[in-house]
Amino acid sequence: VQLVESGGGLVQPGGSLRLSCATSGFTFDDYTIAWFRQAPGKEREGVSCINLSERSTYYADSVRSRFTISSDNAANTVYLQMSGLKPEDTAVYYCAADLRYRDGTNWLDEYHAWGQGIQVTVSS
To answer: Model confidence over 50-79: pLDDT tens digits?
Structure first.
């Protein structure tokens, strides 16, 4: 299982970015992909996840209505569209994969494969 994030960078408050998680080495539709983030001095937190078999999605309260997770199953890629970005969204963002189906009670549980992470900085 390989996960490679891209699309990070520096953006002004209120701006938008789209992160991509390109995947390989597994049957895409069998998995759940999630985005996590970790800011300096803070614990890692879940941002969103998508069950690729049926495309059900879950979001942290802090990003709901601003972030959208989606997938392109033909390209084996998951996206995180981020809008209305705030300085507190600054973090290293990671995508993660797991075979286990996720719902509202377990989408933050352990994931067995992780990307290397990508920096998102929201600053004027």
So the answer is: 999 989 999 999 999 999 999 998 999 999
